[in-house]
Design goal:
Oligomer: heterodimer
Number of domains of chain A: 2
Shape of chain A: globular
CATH topology of the largest domain in chain A: D-Maltodextrin-Binding Protein, domain 2
Radius of gyration of chain A: 23 Å
Protein name (chain B): Putative thiamine transport system permease protein
Organism (chain B): Franzmannia pantelleriensis
CATH architecture of the largest domain in chain A: 3-Layer(aba) Sandwich
Number of helices of chain B: 24
Helix content of chain B: over 70%
Helix content of chain A: 40-55%
Family (chain B): Belongs to the binding-protein-dependent transport system permease family.
Number of strands of chain A: 11
Strand order of the largest sheet of chain B: 1-2
CATH class of chain B: Mainly Alpha
Keywords (chain B): Cell inner membrane, Cell membrane, Membrane, Transmembrane, Transmembrane helix, Transport
Order of helices and strands of chain B: HEEHHHHHHHHHHHHHHHHHHHHHHH
CATH superfamily of the largest domain in chain A: Periplasmic binding protein-like II
CATH topology of chain B: MetI-like fold
Number of strands of chain B: 2
Distance between the termini of chain A: 68 Å
Membrane topology (chain B): Multi-pass membrane protein
Structural class of chain B: mainly alpha
Largest sheet of chain A: 6 strands, mixed
C-alpha cells in the first residue's frame, strides 16, 4: 500500500513528474483486481470488431450492447467486419505507426490462424482470460478445448465465447439419404450435378470444408497437427486436390463460381438452388426454418466419423485504450445469462462454452435444447468432434486453392 | 475573401489526391519506412504480377469502363435524338432525378434480385414458360465476364448522362438547329444526330470521362454484381490492403498504381474511339442521307431507355417484396407468407447508421454548397466567366476526384493519416465525402448560376443595394430551386459513398451504405431488402424536398418554382 501513496505524493509535488507519470495511469488494468476493473470500465466505450455477415449474430451483439449499458454503463459498439483479418491488419498497422496506447480495436472475435498471427506478433493483451470471474464455469480441466485454439494453447490471451461444428443439412423432401462422408459427397454430386457447393476460399466455412476433406482423404493426420513447414505440403495435400479437381465440375455453377459464405449457402438452399449444404453453427438450419428462410422439411446431420469443430474466442489487442471495459465484456459473455441467450434458437443458436453438467440445476435448465424441432441435430450427433489442424495449414491450403482455382 | 474560394476548393481537392497518390507510389516501389521498407525495389510489382488471375481482373476492369460508358451514352443519345416531347418522353425526363438518386449499391442489389436464376424474372416465367421447377444452374449474377456488373452500372449511368445532357442542351439551342435541318428535309431523329450531337458531345465529355473512371474502378457494385474468381482489380486491391500480412501493402500500392493505369488506359482508348467515330461519322453526316434508319433509331432509343428505367424500378420493388417475405419457395412469384419481422428486427439497428448517414451527408453538402456559391459569386463579381463549354479556369481541377479512381488515392490517404497519427473520426469521413460531393454540387449548380440574368443584380445595385445585399436578397432567393436540387444531388452522392466511409472511418463509422454492402456477403435477401430500401429512400427524400419546397415557398410566384 505504501508504494502508490509515495508515488501520489511525489506526483502532487512535482507537476512534471505528474506529466511523465501520466502514461502509467493508462497502464493496463490488472484482471486480478476485479473490483478495480469494474470501476474503471464504467463509462468506457468498447469497439468490438466482429464478423458482421450474419443477421442473427448481429442481433445477439445488439442485445449484449443493451445489457452492458444497463448493467455496467459500458457502451458496446459492434464494428462489423467482412473478415477478421481486417482487425489484425489494423492493429498491426497501428503498431507500425507507433500507436501503442490508443488503438481503435478494443475487443476482437477471433480464433485459429488470426489468433496465431496476433500472438506471433505480440499484438494481444494478457494473460487475462483465466482471471475472469465467470471463466471457472467452463471447467477447462474437463474441457481442454476452451483453452486450446487450433492446437495452440491460448495461455489466457483469449477468452472462450462459443462452439462451432460443421453440420450438414438438406431438404428431406428432395433427398432421402444424404451422403455421410466426403467421398460419398462426390459420388452424390456426380448423380446430382449443380446441387452442392462450398463457400469461396478464403471464407472460413469454406476453408473448414477443405480441412474436413483433407483429414478424411489423407493418411497423414499427424502431420496436420504440426506446423505445415514440418511436412511435405505437396504430398500431404495431393489427395485433396485430386478430389476437388474431380468434384468441381459437378458443383453448383460447375465450380466456376462459389457461394460467398455460409449464410449465402443457406440462402441458396432456401431458393432451392442447392439440395445439400453445411454450416458452422449446428442449430442454424433449425433457426432458419423458424425464420422462414428454409423449408420446414429441412434436416441436419453430421458426417460419419465426426466433423471439424472448434471454439471461438474474444481477445483484447495490446493497444486497446479500454481494456477494463473489454475484459468486463468478455466476462459478461461468459455469464450463464449471456450464454443461454446466445444458445437460444430464436436468438442465435451458438452452443455454450460453459460446462452445463457442472452448473447448478436452475442454471443448467436454461441450456436445455428444444429437441422437438425436426430440423435440429440428434442430441448425440455432436459427440464426435474432429480437432482443428495446426493454424498454418489453413493459410497454406487457402493459398494453394487460390493459385489452383482463381483466374482459370 | 470570396476571391480565395476557387483556390480553397482547388487546394482542398487536389491536395489530398496528390498526397494519396504519392503515398501509393512510394510503397509501390518498396519505400515505406513504417513497414520496414527503406530502399527502392521492384519486388511489389513482381508480387503483383504473380497474383493468380491478375490479367483477368485487369481485363474486366478495363472493359467494364469502356463497355458501360459506350452502352449508356448510346442509349442516352438515341433517346434524346428521338424524343419529341410526348407524354412518354416527359415521363422519362421526370424519372431522371429519382433514378439518379438511387444509390449504386441499392440498384445493384435490385438488379441481382431481378436477374438471378432464382430472381423475380425467372420466378415470373417459371414454370409456365420455362418449365423450371427449380432455379436453373446458370451463371448470371457475378458472371466471369462481368456482364451483370456492366448491366448494373449502365442502369445507373444512363440517368446521370441524361441529366448532364439535358443541362448542356440549354446551351446550344438544339430546337433551332433541328428546325433548320428539318426545313432541309431531314427527319427529326436523323437531324438531331447530325446537327445537335456534334455540338453536344464536347459539352458532356467530362461527365463521360467520369463514367469511364467510375466504371473501371468501382468497388461496391463490383462486390455485389462483379465476378469473383478473380474479382475486379479494385475489389482485389481491397482484400490485399486488409491482409494481416502487412507486407502485402507494398503489393496493394503497386496495384493501386496499376488501377490508375487501367483507368487512364480506358480513357485513352475512349479518346481513340472518339477519333474513329469522328472519322467514320464525317462521311455519314455530310452524305446528305435524310431519312434512312429514322424509325429504327427512334424506337431503339425509347425501348432501351425504358428497359433501363423499368429494370431499376422493378429492382427496387423487388427489394421491397424481399424485405416483407416469409418463406418463398421457387418458383412462386410471390412469397407464401408476408411478414413485418425483418423490418421489426432491423429497426433498432437502423437508427444509428441512418443518423450518421444524414449527419455526414448534411455536413458535407452544406460545406460544399457554401464553397461552390462563394466560387460562383466570385466569378460573377470579377466578371471572369469561363467561356461556355470551355474549361479554362482553375476550377477545372474540380473534376479530378471524378477522374482519378477513388481506390487509387484513398489507400495512400489512409497511410498518410496513419503516419500522422490521425484517429479515424466522423470528420475525416465528412472530409472524404466532400471530395466527391463538391464536384457534383458544382456541376449541377454552375449552369443555373451562370445563366442567371445579370440584370436582376444590376437593378438591385442601382437601387442602392450592396453586392452582398444583391446576393442574399435577390440572387439566392431566385435561385432557390436549382440550389435545392444541387443540395439533393450532394446528399445523394454522399449517401452512396462506400469506399471513403469504409477506409477513412476505419469501419467505425457505419452508414446505411456500408451496412448494406456488408450484408452482401451474408446473402440474406430479406435483410438486404430492408437496408437497400432504406438506403434508396434517404436520397429520394432530398429530391422530394428539393422539388416541393420552392413550390411551397413561391406558391405566389410561378416563375420561381423551378422546372419539374
Amino acid at each position: 500500500m505504501s508504494l502508490p501513496r509515495t508515488c501520489h505524493a511525489l506526483a502532487a509535488s512535482l507537476p512534471l513528474a505528474a506529466l511523465l507519470a501520466s502514461p502509467t495511469t493508462l497502464a493496463a488494468p490488472d484482471p486480478g483486481d476485479w473490483q478495480a476493473v469494474v470501476e474503471e470500465a464504467r463509462g468506457q466505450t468498447v469497439y468490438w470488431h466482429a464478423w458482421g455477415g450474419d443477421g442473427r449474430t448481429n442481433r445477439y451483439l445488439e442485445w449484449v450492447a443493451e445489457r452492458m449499458q444497463a448493467e455496467h454503463q459500458v457502451e458496446v459498439i459492434h464494428v462489423k467486419l467482412g473478415d477478421t483479418a481486417e482487425a489484425v491488419s489494423r492493429v498491426l498497422a497501428e503498431r507500425q505507426a507507433g500507436n501503442d496506447d490508443d488503438g481503435s480495436v478494443d475487443l476482437v472475435w477471433i480464433n485459429g490462424e488470426n489468433f496465431a498471427a496476433m500472438r506471433d506478433s505480440d499484438l494481444l493483451f494478457g494473460p487475462f482470460a483465466e482471471q475472469l470471474p465467470h471463466f471457472a464455469l467452463t471447467h477447462p480441466e474437463h474441457n481442454p478445448e476452451v483453452v486450446t485454439d487450433f492446437t495452440l494453447p491460448t495461455d489466457g490471451f483469449e477468452s472462450p465465447w462459443g462452439k462451432a461444428q460443421i453440420t450438414f443439412y438438406y431438404d428431406s423432401d428432395e433427398l432421402d439419404t444424404p451422403p455421410t462422408s466426403v467421398a460419398e459427397i462426390k459420388a452424390w454430386a456426380e448423380d446430382n450435378p449443380g446441387r452442392f457447393s462450398y463457400p469461396r476460399i478464403p471464407d472460413f466455412t469454406g476453408s473448414t470444408f477443405l480441412k474436413q476433406a483433407l483429414i478424411e482423404l489423407s493418411d497423414a493426420d499427424e502431420a496436420l497437427y504440426a506446423p505445415v513447414e514440418e511436412s511435405d505440403f505437396e504430398a500431404v495435400s495431393a489427395p485433396l486436390w485430386d478430389y476437388l479437381d474431380d468434384l468441381h465440375p459437378h458443383l453448383w455453377r460447375s465450380g466456376r463460381q462459389f457461394p460467398a459464405s455460409g449464410p449465402d449457402m443457406l440462402r441458396l438452399m432456401g431458393d432451392g438452388e442447392l439440395a445439400l449444404a453445411f454450416t458452422f453453427i449446428p442449430s442454424e438450419p433449425a433457426a432458419a426454418v423458424a425464420d422462414g428462410e428454409l423449408a420446414p422439411s429441412t434436416r441436419s446431420y453430421v458426417l460419419d466419423g465426426g466433423t471439424l469443430g472448434n471454439v471461438h474466442f474474444v481477445a483484447i489487442p495490446y493497444n486497446s485504450p479500454h481494456k477494463a471495459a473489454a475484459m468486463l465484456l468478455a466476462d459478461f459473455l461468459l455469464t450463464p445469462e449471456a450464454q443461454a441467450h446466445k444458445q437460444d434458437l430464436a436468438v442465435w443458436g451458438d452452443r455454450t462454452v460453459l460446462d452445463v453438467s457442472r452448473l447448478d440445476d436452475d442454471q443448467a435448465a436454461r441450456f436445455e435444447l428444444d429437441q422437438d424441432n425436426p430440423a435440429m441435430l440428434a442430441p448425440d450427433a455432436l459427440e464426435q468432434t474432429l480437432a482443428e489442424p495446426h493454424p498454418s495449414w489453413m493459410d497454406a491450403l487457402q493459398e494453394a486453392w487460390q493459385a489452383r482455382y482463381v483466374g482459370r | 475573401m470570396l476571391r480565395l474560394a476557387p483556390w480553397l476548393i482547388t487546394a482542398l481537392l487536389v491536395g489530398p489526391i496528390l498526397a494519396g497518390l504519392a503515398m501509393a507510389a512510394l510503397p509501390a516501389f518498396g519505400y515505406l519506412p513504417a513497414l520496414g521498407g527503406d530502399s527502392l525495389s521492384l519486388d511489389p510489382w513482381r508480387d503483383l504480377f504473380a497474383q493468380p488471375g491478375l490479367a483477368r481482373s485487369v481485363a474486366i476492369s478495363f472493359s467494364s469502363g469502356i463497355a458501360t460508358t459506350a452502352v449508356s451514352l448510346t442509349v442516352v443519345v438515341l433517346f434524346l435524338a428521338g424524343a419529341s416531347g410526348n407524354r412518354l418522353d416527359r415521363w422519362i425526363r421526370r424519372m431522371v432525378s429519382p433514378l439518379l438518386s438511387i444509390p449504386h449499391a441499392a440498384a445493384a442489389f435490385g438488379l441481382a434480385f431481378l436477374i438471378a436464376p432464382s430472381g423475380l424474372v425467372s420466378r415470373a416465367l417459371s414454370p409456365t414458360v420455362t418449365g423450371w421447377e427449380r432455379p436453373p444452374d446458370l451463371l448470371i449474377v457475378q458472371d466471369p465476364w462481368g456482364l451483370s456488373l456492366m448491366a448494373g452500372l449502365v442502369v445507373k449511368e444512363i440517368p446521370f448522362l441524361l441529366l448532364m445532357s439535358l443541362a448542356a442542351l440549354h446551351q446550344i439551342d438544339a430546337e433551332h438547329r433541328v428546325a433548320l435541318a428539318r426545313s432541309l428535309g431531314y427527319r427529326p431523329t436523323i437531324a438531331w444526330l447530325k446537327v445537335v450531337l456534334p455540338s453536344l458531345y464536347p459539352l458532356i465529355r467530362l461527365p463521360v470521362f467520369a463514367v469511364i473512371a467510375y466504371a473501371s474502378s468501382v468497388v461496391d457494385v463490383a462486390m455485389i454484381l462483379g465476378p469473383t474468381l478473380p474479382p475486379t482489380l479494385s475489389v482485389s486491391l481491397l482484400t490485399w490492403f486488409n491482409d494481416p500480412d502487412l507486407s502485402r501493402r507494398f503489393m496493394a500500392s503497386a496495384g493501386a498504381l496499376l488501377q490508375l493505369g487501367v483507368t487512364l488506359a480506358a480513357l485513352a482508348s475512349w479518346w481513340g474511339l472518339e477519333c474513329l467515330v469522328r472519322r467514320l461519322g464525317r462521311g455519314w453526316m455530310a452524305g446528305g442521307q435524310r431519312q434512312r434508319g429514322e424509325r429504327r433509331l427512334r424506337i431503339a432509343g425509347k425501348a432501351l431507355i425504358l428497359l433501363a428505367a423499368i429494370t431499376a424500378l422493378v429492382g427496387i420493388a423487388g427489394l421491397a417484396i424481399n424485405s416483407l417475405a416469409g418463406f418463398w419457395r421457387f418458383p412462386d412469384g410471390l412469397p407464401q407468407t408476408v411478414t413485418l419481422q425483418h423490418w421489426q428486427r432491423a429497426l433498432p439497428s437502423l437508427g444509428g447508421p441512418v443518423a450518421a448517414t444524414l449527419m455526414i451527408a448534411g455536413t458535407a453538402t452544406l460545406l460544399a454548397v457554401g464553397l461552390v456559391l462563394a466560387a460562383l459569386e466570385n466569378e460573377q463579381r470579377s466578371g471572369r466567366q469561363p467561356a461556355q463549354g470551355q474549361l479554362t479556369s482553375a476550377l477545372t481541377l474540380l473534376y479530378l476526384p471524378l477522374i482519378v479512381p477513388q481506390i487509387a488515392f484513398l489507400f495512400g490517404l489512409v497511410v498518410v493519416m496513419e503516419a500522422l497519427g490521425t484517429r479515424p473520426t466522423r470528420w475525416l469521413v465528412i472530409f472524404g465525402h466532400l471530395l466527391f460531393v463538391l464536384p457534383y454540387v458544382f456541376l449541377s449548380m454552375s449552369e443555373a448560376y451562370r445563366r442567371f440574368d445579370p440584370r436582376w443584380s444590376r437593378v438591385a445595385l442601382t437601387l442602392g443595394a450592396t453586392p452582398n445585399d444583391a446576393f442574399w436578397r435577390v440572387r439566392l432567393p431566385m435561385l432557390l430551386a436549382p440550389l435545392l436540387t444541387a443540395m439533393a444531388v450532394g446528399l445523394a452522392v454522399s449517401i452512396g459513398q462506400y469506399l471513403p466511409t469504409l477506409l477513412l472511418g476505419a469501419g467505425r463509422v457505419s452508414t446505411v451504405t456500408t451496412e448494406a454492402v456488408a450484408l452482401a456477403a451474408g446473402g440474406n435477401r430479406r435483410l438486404i431488402g430492408v437496408w437497400a430500401l432504406v438506403q434508396a429512400s434517404l436520397p429520394l427524400l432530398g429530391f422530394i424536398i428539393a422539388v416541393g419546397l420552392p413550390r411551397l415557398l413561391w406558391s405566389n410566384r410561378r416563375g420561381m418554382r423551378g422546372t419539374p
